[in-house]
Amino acid sequence: MHTTNGVIGFGESCPRSYVTGESVESARDFCSEHIERLKNNITGLDSLSAWVTEHRSDINSHPAAWCALELALLDALAKTSEESVESLLSQRELEGIFQYTAVIGDMDDDAFSKLAQRYIDLGFLDFKIKLSGQLSGDKSKLHFLANNCPEQYRLRLDANNLWRSTTKAINYLRALEADFFAIEEPLAANNYDQLLELHQALNTKIILDESFLRIEQFKHLATKPSPWIINIRVSKMGGLLRGLDIVNSAKALKIPIIIGAQVGETSLLTRAALTLAQSAGDLGIAQEGAVGTYLLKDDICEQVLMFGPGGKLNMDNYPVIKNAGFGLKLRPALSFIEDF
Q: What confidence tens digit (pLDDT) does each residue in 214-253 have?
């Protein structure tokens, strides 16, 4: 985003139709519709916060699109005032080590074992495995981890809304004969009562992803917060301001938080997610993403934020984050960057 005073702010989002109902095309249309008014009316954090509040309903319908705009605005505002985004938002500066999860999608046994072994060899101890719904294949993958990971490894599962029947979900998860501490989205989204039944039957935590898109959904969790974990993604929540509000509400209820990521994110979204992760503090029990060029052919940033051995991202290795804004420089002449 080019501001009226010549500062360039950079933003990113990952619209996903199956999460928020958005597409790249709808996100582009949303940005084009609002960009000029934002340039003319957003002069600081107060006016940005007021815009987010005033346009809550519109952002609810286009959270990923707004995320890209908001991140660009925050980057530009912080650059203008020559401070980090954390300083602009009255958050602690980034420091220390951020620990990432090995996330493995649904794939055949051979591909799974090769990728899992790579993570094991890198020293990962935290794993998230996507279930396929094919019992023999899922059991084989989980047995591979049990037989090859160090004893202290930790496992959570992601079912991606596989089942419509609570009974079938419970029976399937028992049949896996695996030691997992949480299951993500086993049922159709927003079935909180049925998810509580599953929690009680299996004595496992329930991770909400598609079932938690906005702060109003805390009303389903507040009376009994202990079964839940919330997967918070900057893009899904509609930017950093709304994301920080959700982190603060989760902390008030003592609901654990996973800082999630979308496949294909570049270092810009990885950087933004670090703000949420640091704010989450001890309630942040896991973090996804920071895959960088392990997955992407190219990253748009000159210095790629990506995990190293053990899934660790050490801020001491990235002095650029102390620069103004998000601190990242984009590689020049990239055709896939869209100007507004």
A: 999 999 999 999 999 999 999 999 999 999 999 999 999 9
pTM above 0.85, yes or no: yes
Residue 336 lies in a domain: no
| Whole-number Å distance between alpha carbons of 73 and 92 | 20
Q: CB–CB of 203/222 below 8 Å? A: no
pLDDT score at 338? 56
71 and 187 assigned to the same domain: no
C-alpha 101/C-alpha 307 separation (Å) is 10
Supply the DSSP symbol for 316: G
Under 8 Å between Cβ of 209 and 231: yes
Number of helices and strands in the chain (H, E): 13, 10
Average pLDDT over residues 289-311: 91
**Same-domain pairing of 63 and 181:** no
Task: Give a yes or no: residue 11 inside a domain.
Answer: no
Tell me, yes or no, whether 159 and 187 share the same domain.
yes
User: Could you please report the per-residue DSSP string of 218-277?
Assistant: GGGTTTS-TTEEEEE-HHHHTSHHHHHHHHHHHHHHT--EEE---TT--HHHHHHHHHHH
Same domain, yes or no, for 113 and 225?
A: yes
In the chain, the number of structural domains is 2
Alpha carbons 173 and 167: distance in angstroms, whole number: 10
Strands 97-99 and 182-184 turn out to be unpaired
Computed on alpha carbons and rounded to an integer, the radius of gyration of the chain in Å comes to 20
Report how far apart, in Å, the C-alpha atoms of 207 and of each of 76, 78, 214, 281 are: 34, 34, 15, 18
